[in-house]
Design goal:
0% of the residues lie in helices and 61% in strands. The protein is built from no helices and 11 strands. The strands form 2 sheets. Strands 2, 4, 5, 6, 9, 10 and 11 form a 7-stranded mixed sheet that branches. A hairpin with a 6-residue loop joins strand 4 and strand 5.
Length: 119
């Protein structure tokens, strides 16, 4: 079993920055993709950014140029640097990691951290 602990959320004014962290621990075999999702009130959870074990990244169009995802494989930690925040970025942010055990994949989710951007 893998546990994820997120941190870094909070309240910030529009144009400000926040950095989210998500540390994985427990019975880890081989973490492949690490990602951040977000869910705003009344909306479905959606992908924000993802990073593979090789460092390839992908972003939803609305955050390109403002958010940067990175990872520290030695610490099993993924980060999301969020700059130029907008009120529409307000949501609960969740990290997700995919652990490879042989040929099987297991997805684990963090508990979520609230990000609120005031106008």
């Amino acid at each position: 079993q893998v546990q994820l602990v997120e941190s870094g959320g909070g309240l910030v004014q529009a144009g400000g920055s926040l950095r989210l962290s998500c540390a994985a621990s427990g019975r880890i075999f081989s973490i492949n993709t690490m990602a951040w999702y977000r869910q705003a009130p009344g909306k479905q959870r959606g992908l924000v950014a993802a990073i593979t074990s090789g460092g390839s990244t992908d972003y939803v169009d609305s955050v390109k140029g403002r958010f940067t995802i990175s990872r520290d494989n030695a610490k099993n930690t993924v980060y999301l640097q969020m700059n130029s925040l907008k009120p529409e970025d307000t949501a609960v942010y969740y990290c997700k990691v995919r652990d490879l055990v042989g040929v099987r994949e297991y997805d684990y989710w963090g508990q979520g951290t609230q990000v609120t951007v005031s106008s």
